[in-house]
Specification:
The chain is mainly alpha-helical. It has one domain (2-93). The chain is 49% helix and 10% strand. A two-stranded antiparallel sheet has the order 1-2. It is globular, with a radius of gyration of 17 Å.
Length: 99
Amino acid sequence: MIADVKNSGFAHTPSGHFQANATWLALAALAHNLTRAADALAPAFHARATTATIRDRLINVPARLARSARRLTLHLPERWPWSEDFTQLFSTVHAPPAL
């Protein structure tokens, strides 16, 4: 976990200012927790992946956003290897709440 945080947002420290370091640490911890939450909702393949791998495969999406008739449409690449994993994560996150 510490290596994951150091390789992401916390790589911007040390700064000469304590408040800047504290802010980067808080944001790095928040980003790490959100990435791991996305990892928990993704298929089992990503369970042991590093934060950089999850970011490259599920968060940095090579997609095109189109607007037509006041609706947004996300166009994923046709032969993107992680499209099924991303689609499963997206539908899980945007599912209606369970009653």
